[in-house]
Amino acid sequence: MKQFISVNDVNDINALAAKALAYKANPLVDARLGANKRIGLLFLNPSLRTRLSTQIAAKNLGMEAIVFNVDKEGWALEFEEGAIMSGNTVEHIKDAGPILGQYFDILCIRTFPSLKNREDDYSEMFINQFIKYAGVPVVSLESATLHPLQSLTDIVTIKEQLLATPLNKKPKIVLTWAPHIKPLPQCVANSFAQWVNAWSEAEFVITHPQDYELAEQFTKGATITHDQDAALKDADFVYVKNWSTYSDYGKVYENDPGWMLTEEKLKATNNARVMHCLPVRRNVELSDEVLDSPHSLVTKQAGNRVWAAQAVLSELLKA
Amino acid sequence: MKQFISVNDVNDINALAAKALAYKANPLVDARLGANKRIGLLFLNPSLRTRLSTQIAAKNLGMEAIVFNVDKEGWALEFEEGAIMSGNTVEHIKDAGPILGQYFDILCIRTFPSLKNREDDYSEMFINQFIKYAGVPVVSLESATLHPLQSLTDIVTIKEQLLATPLNKKPKIVLTWAPHIKPLPQCVANSFAQWVNAWSEAEFVITHPQDYELAEQFTKGATITHDQDAALKDADFVYVKNWSTYSDYGKVYENDPGWMLTEEKLKATNNARVMHCLPVRRNVELSDEVLDSPHSLVTKQAGNRVWAAQAVLSELLKA
Amino acid sequence: MKQFISVNDVNDINALAAKALAYKANPLVDARLGANKRIGLLFLNPSLRTRLSTQIAAKNLGMEAIVFNVDKEGWALEFEEGAIMSGNTVEHIKDAGPILGQYFDILCIRTFPSLKNREDDYSEMFINQFIKYAGVPVVSLESATLHPLQSLTDIVTIKEQLLATPLNKKPKIVLTWAPHIKPLPQCVANSFAQWVNAWSEAEFVITHPQDYELAEQFTKGATITHDQDAALKDADFVYVKNWSTYSDYGKVYENDPGWMLTEEKLKATNNARVMHCLPVRRNVELSDEVLDSPHSLVTKQAGNRVWAAQAVLSELLKA
Questions:
Q1: How far, in Å, CA of C176 to CA of C238, rounded?
Q2: Does A98 lie at the interface with C, CB-CB under 8 angstroms?
Q3: What is the pLDDT of residue C253?
Q4: What domains sit in chain B, N to C, each tagged with a CATH number?
Q5: Calpha distance B248→B250 (Å, rounded)
Q6: Helices and strands, counts by H and E, chain B
Q7: ipTM of the shown complex
Q8: Where are the beta strands (DSSP E) in B164-213?
Q9: pLDDT greater than 90 at residue A55
Q10: In b/e form, how buried is each residue of A227-243, taking b as 16+ CB within 10 angstroms?
Q11: pLDDT over threshold 90, residue B202
Q12: Which of A72, A75, A84 has its CB closest to that of C72?
């Protein structure tokens, strides 16, 4: 593995997920693999799970991890080629990137979309410029359109469940839109769709209100419906997530609380386990009764973030 | 020890203080005790001494310490059960707590009172919810009403002085209110009162202007007077601290500079040593002449924060 | 070495630069030198290179490095003797300094000038008060008027070039003012001038528009001219930097883009290599064509920050 930006950087999803579960069973088995290696965790946006889990994963591999909140501890970076920097940006990625690449063996970066201009966000200029200039392997801690460490965790969590309680058929996985009060990125949903499609070991259904379609480049292969009830029928896993509109980009049209997942709705499923990347707006996206029920995998899922990150860093260190 | 939230978590104050002084004499004697253990230091409010001393204490025990400024690096947490999260809070402690408990072996948290609603603050909902959901030992880095790491340090500092210069009687300890420009929590004063009362090896007097009483649950056992001069007479230790009003909660009624401790006032004492938790507003709470005199223990006291924290973490690791 | 605040703390510049280059060749040769020593990196202002390079240098020497953003994680410090602290400052350096000195073996601090009052800034009260009260060796991570870790790096980078491509004469080094959109400190330019003059192995020319003179205490010994073209003639190294006015203090009078260094201007030089401390405003201070050309040393220069810091910390540890 040369970098970890999307599922396209992964040769064998099942092998990578198995590696994550092996680290879960034995966190310190490779405690010397990253000795004298340094990883930089750069945040242009806030983070809880992603930061802590990646930091812990790095330490488990013996790496020195340094967190740098670029937005708060540093200054605004410029990503546009040829910019005349007479505005608010203080340093160009063309200068910062190669220097960070000298300081660190692996660089991880989180950078959110603006949600103002779809073409800009979907060009992934920020992370692409970062990769172009860093000169060392780059790991996405969530970019404008994708969140691959989350998605690998999601596959790991599903596989872990299937190993404990095998099904005699392909699992039915449903990604359902949920209400929220603010316009959110499409990253987690895009990325989950991309990974489940690439994994191809599930029946995969996406359900959302009209006007909330995701980018076809990520969803292609999934069944897409606006009928949540039909989608949930016989589901084995329900992944709940809000995202903002894609066509008329970055808007919140609809906040129909009817889309919130409830225990009542779960009755149509095959005793489905419920997933969410967190943070979750309780009683807006998901009801307390679901989150506090045995159906919920969200705590296990978040715990698995460590092992997914550790598997990825391990692959990069071995490359 | 299962947690460290108040003096009620301590079996033997003298033994714990002795342990702290033993670490002061030999900081690295237990440098392997916390190997492969991870401690999370979570701040919902700013900190200097508490953060650095706890971080250093953890490292002295071989633990990996990770600082996370929840308010600045993360987002606002919700603590209310059943909340419909359509407001400013982004993540519920019911979700964040168990995840942090998976990531860390010990969790430390600082959370200040609102000073708006006394019942809410004194219910200690934030730290109690945190304890309820974390599932691992929790250490208070100051909560809405108490600051036990500070108070243990205070006892350690007093004992250290008494060991160096024994008295032929119980020491007289006076906690005196001091002026300040802003409404401050009652935590340090409450907690000091709670610990000195539980320790029960001193004559303990609290003095403050009318309307500045503290919660009786913590002060019970102490002599309380509004006459500062009478209180200071023959004192061996004078603990200086401002706090805001308790009954008409969180107000500053009075800023009589006459309550500022001066060298002149110290003449009535038994050559008393002067303590303060810091930060201190010089020439408002305490005069330069006192702080810069040999009477002042404040630097030694702050230095002892490391050893108090190390004793507590050591007990938690051994439990 | 007892501290590192300016070139005056250095006995032998060449020996220190050689030590830095030796660490570049073998970063971990002294990996145990700082075992069980702790270094505090205190920032009153933001930083990227200085923070990361010093943190990495400390780790390479086996020290435990703790970063503390005083302005963001803590509170405002008071530096004025005798202050009545009824304003915005929360803690006096007289109290914070000795405590930090108890917590750390070496203290590093960054504190910018106000650019409002020249006498205040040039008195270097902040860092001097810090040194006075810390009681342990202090390293400047940039102070009101100087930036010695940058300047040592600059000398290291020049020497490295001269070792690779020796000249048959003293190198001609030109420090040239560049346009910027905001008033910047004079630190980097002052400090570079102070070091090059102390090093005394170069022909040293400073060029800037009228009214942009630097403090004579640092420039004395250099040739100073307002004619940039004349200055650049036959230059071997061109150091580009903006600074604000000194006499009518802290102003931006002039933004003549004619002062921006371009490839065209470099033609008059002896194929000069171009330096800048970064961050650089591209196409304001320096054109893309220069920064992206083989003339530019800025990435190498920034990389050398690690080795310069490591040489300094090593000297302090050995003292």
A1: 7
A2: yes
A3: 86
A4: 7-146+305-318 (3.40.50.1370), 150-302 (3.40.50.1370)
A5: 7
A6: 13, 11
A7: 0.96
A8: 172-177, 203-207
A9: yes
A10: ebeebbeebbbbbbbbb
A11: yes
A12: A72
